[in-house]
Amino acid sequence: MFLKMTALGVLLHRGSYLRGFFNIIDFVITVMSLIPIISYFYRLTSSNATECLAYSYQETLVPVYLATLRVFRVFRPMRAIRISAFYIVVTGLLSSIKSIGRILVICVLVMSIFAIIGTILFRGSFFYCTDPNKPTERECKGHFFTYPTGDLSCPELNERQWLRHGLNFDNFGQSFLTLFSMITSEGWQIVMYNGYNSRLFQDTNEPVGPRPNSSPYAFIFFLLYMCIMTLVLLNMFIGFVIVTFQEVGIKAFRESKLDRNQRNCLYFALTTKPQFRYVPKFRWQERLLEVTRHPVFSLFIIISLICNSIILCLQTIEAAKETVYWINFFFTLLFTVEAILKMTALHPVNYFKNLWNFLEFLSTTGALLEFILQQTVISDGSDFRYSHFASSFRVLWLLRFVPQVRLIMWTVIKSLEIFPWVGLLLLVVVFTFAVIGMQVFGTIKRAPIESSMEYPGNHITQYNNFANFPQALLVMIRVTTGENWQEVMLSCKKNSPCESKPEHNCGSDATYFFYPFFYAIASILFLNLFVAIIIDNFDYLVKDKSVLGAHQLSTFVKLWSIYDPSASGELLPEEVIKLLKQCNPPVGWGILCPRIVAYRKMMDLNMPLVDEKVTFHATLFGLVKTSLDIGCSGCLECLHKCNVELKEKLRVLFPTCEQRILDQVLPVEDVSTVRRGYAVHLIQTRWRAFVRKRNETIQIFQGRERRSLIAGQRRLPDAGPELLERKLSDFELEEHSILHSPPQGSRKSSVSGVRTMTPASLTGYRFSFDQTHEERPLSGRWGEFELTSPPLAEDPSFSPQLRRQNEFSGEHDPDPFEEREDDEQSELSFSSAFGTPTTNPHLITHHHRETTV
């Protein structure tokens, strides 16, 4: 302390010693620790030698009690903990304490109002006589007989005592303490019954004892208070703590520009490793593995587990032990056969890598060994059976088949990651109060377990005391759970008998502050932090299912093991496309995803290539990055800059992540990626399709000199034979005459600079014109009609009529972008991606749509 003061200064300037919170605590604790030492040496230097020799250090009681505050030094090492989860817990706790001030004021005001009303109604009415036949203090004199054994021939003589209940309403402080103990739901009904039997509006100078049913309307006061405080305000207080804790977590993620879901998914992608999948070497092993993984086999095992559980539940003393014994033996033998089949199919080494298989083997073999020993070696007649114990835990195997239960299990697992840090804080608080309790309440007389009239209501026993640290720790844990904590508090009050000197009085009135304060911190605040963590994780897991979550990425890991059973972490891009098609969104793309769309999605992933393969972490990281819109996209330079920034951010967020993996998923150098490869692939595919189509068009064009042109959609042949056979209506006749009427003028237009036609020639019906090989194919727009060249008009790919005729005859149009076996493209490697070829002016797509003339 003196060294820090010398180095930092004492108080006046910024950064001095006494301007730090923990430094102030150290200063106060150190000074209080020095007080008894200084007092002791002062006594030793006194002139009276006899008094000096009779004096001992332990007689400075007050300084020793103050010196117990040294225990608060246990909070200092927490400053050195830099783990993010612990930081979030501590920050959330401190923020909760700061923000609950308003709701705490409301609770205190309501309790104060009820305390004042309770003092007016019940003051002086919570006294009683140890002899229930004496209702007043004047009558409660002398002795009376009791029969503790129930035998009238063995009475016990006891002195009458006029006592008062520990929880009463004699003054405002006692009323407030009584009401606080009631909101914890511990012993509140006893207080209500005492008020129900009390006599209201009594003078405090003449206290009277209880009389049965003397105040039948007193229960209204207690029930109203419990409804307001316990059901409304206390739950509001707890909810406020939970909401504040969640807001602190959200704020911490907001500052890093990544929400919690993004951080969890990124952490999963960077830390998860590919799983090894055993591939049977022999054909019979494959068959056996198919049998053990068949849904019918799994259903049979599930039904067997349920039946075995029902048999275990039916066991009673009157049950036929022999029948139940052999039924259990049958199920144990069945589960043993299942374990042997799986072990044979998977090989023992791979079988025991699965935790479920390991637990199943232990339970099955242990139960089988027990049956064998009972029949051959031992028979001790004990009712305990290892087979029953193991079978009860085997039911947990059913949880693997219920998706909702797996979601809850994932919630529990995610909560367990933060539970240790909340438990650490709670342990420090319990440790602190246990040490203080040893110093203040360690000398109280320990009463026997059985109740006696000598120590009525004393809950400081040989198993529940502050004599040593383990016992004190157990007492504080009991108070944390709220188990009859108010009785422990009353047992430590002032004037309690001492252990070493029964004639002296021990205990302290500090008990009225010690226990309520500890209960409020440990039970109401810390235990509800566990609830806040569970609610927070469960709310995160039941969010929109269309948004990718970390709990869904395990599906990708399992499917990767199918394509990469050796867990090498590398696959060909085409295998990755097949893998992602087997994953449903939001993890994958789905089985119905077109190949062109799959190529475009592969370009968005932009995974670096290593020997023409992609890695496990790069693929998973790319999925997370594109699904959750992390980072940026654009030109190559912008992409490299974003990769550098994101890598630095991930290095800060996940310091335990390997640098090799970060360089692998976020390459900052100009390396070969999937995007470049598939871009080349798409350009080549589109160009070959264009060339093939152009050649086919030229061949058709050279074969004919006179072609028909289709403009628009309205043609009688397209309408079908049934319209040609029926009589035309008046409206259709009028429309036909208008369409075929001669033009009123010599207006001419040029379409693509090939030929001029009058509007009457573009009525939407078939017409012909002469065209030589030297002329360019007709293409362009006329009014609202889009025209194509004559060769394309009769091509099935561009003519809706011919396409319908081909479909009716069973023929199908070839896909212009489909790769053919005789194409040179089949010899190329995968390393290509998508691009958009330039549009050929000789090929104008024909749009088939309805028009109104």
TrEMBL record:
Residues 844-853 have a biased composition (Basic residues). InterPro entries: GPHH_dom, Ion_trans_dom, VDCC_a1su_IQ, VDCC_alpha-1_subunit, Volt_channel_dom_sf. The keyword Ribonucleoprotein does not apply. Residues 735-755, 782-853 are annotated as: Disordered. Residues 556-608 form the Voltage-dependent L-type calcium channel IQ-associated domain. Its main location: membrane. One of its GO terms (biological process) is calcium ion import across plasma membrane. Keywords: Calcium, Calcium channel, Calcium transport, Glycoprotein, Ion channel, Ion transport, Membrane, Repeat, Transmembrane, Transmembrane helix, Transport, Voltage-gated channel. Residues 617-690 form the Voltage-dependent calcium channel alpha-1 subunit IQ domain. The chain crosses the membrane at residues 21-42, 79-97, 103-122, 216-245, 296-317, 323-341, 419-444, 512-535. Gene3D superfamilies: 1.10.287.70, EF-hand, Voltage-gated potassium channels. Chain C. This is Voltage-dependent L-type calcium channel subunit alpha-1C. It comes from Geodia barretti (Barrett's horny sponge).
